[in-house]
Amino acid sequence: MLTTKILLFEFGTEGVGASVYKLPDNKVIEKGSSGGILDGVENPFKDWKKIYENWDLWWSKFTSEHQEQWIYFYPIFIHKDIKKSLQIAVDQYNSNIDFADQKENWNCWLREIM
């Protein structure tokens, strides 16, 4: 049986990236890869696949795992269904580090999604 999944979010940064899909039962699956920036020995390639109960749990894990650094990941695709929650997260992002360029990058993608 073929399961239909919907791409919700795709992001990346130097040497790492992932796609986040919603499954028919509202579970969320993250598929990603990293490594190989320097070479395959010092920084081996890694692939992963993780399943979460829903988008909110995935986002909570993502932001807690990356703490203040999540804003430095580059959004590649943002589905309209999560646009509002991501806009709130970007607007509420608070840091002692100047992140104006990164915030504008996110806002640019959020404006593009209708």
Protein architecture, described:
The protein has three helices and five strands. It has one domain. It is of the alpha+beta class and 114 residues long. Helix 2 (83-92) packs antiparallel against helix 3 (100-112).
Fold topology:
Elements: E1 6-13, E2 16-22, E3 28-34, E4 46-52, H1 55-66, E5 74-78, H2 83-92, H3 100-112
Antiparallel strand pairs: 1-2, 1-5, 2-3, 3-4
Helix pairs in contact: 2-3
Offer a concise description of the structure.
The protein is an alpha+beta fold and 114 residues long.
User: How many domains make up the coordinates?
Assistant: 1
In terms of structural class, how would the helical and strand content be classed? alpha+beta
Average pLDDT score: 85
Shape: globular
- Using DSSP, what is the number of strands? 5
Beta fraction of the residues? 25-35%
Low-confidence stretches: none
Adjacency order of strands in the biggest sheet: 4-3-2-1-5
The oligomerization state is single chain
What does the radius of gyration come to?
15 Å
Count, helices: 3
Question: What is the terminal-to-terminal distance?
Answer: 32 Å
Percentage of residues assigned to helices: 25-40%
Q: What's the main sheet like?
A: 5 strands, antiparallel
Task: Please provide the ordered H/E string of secondary-structure elements.
Answer: EEEEHEHH
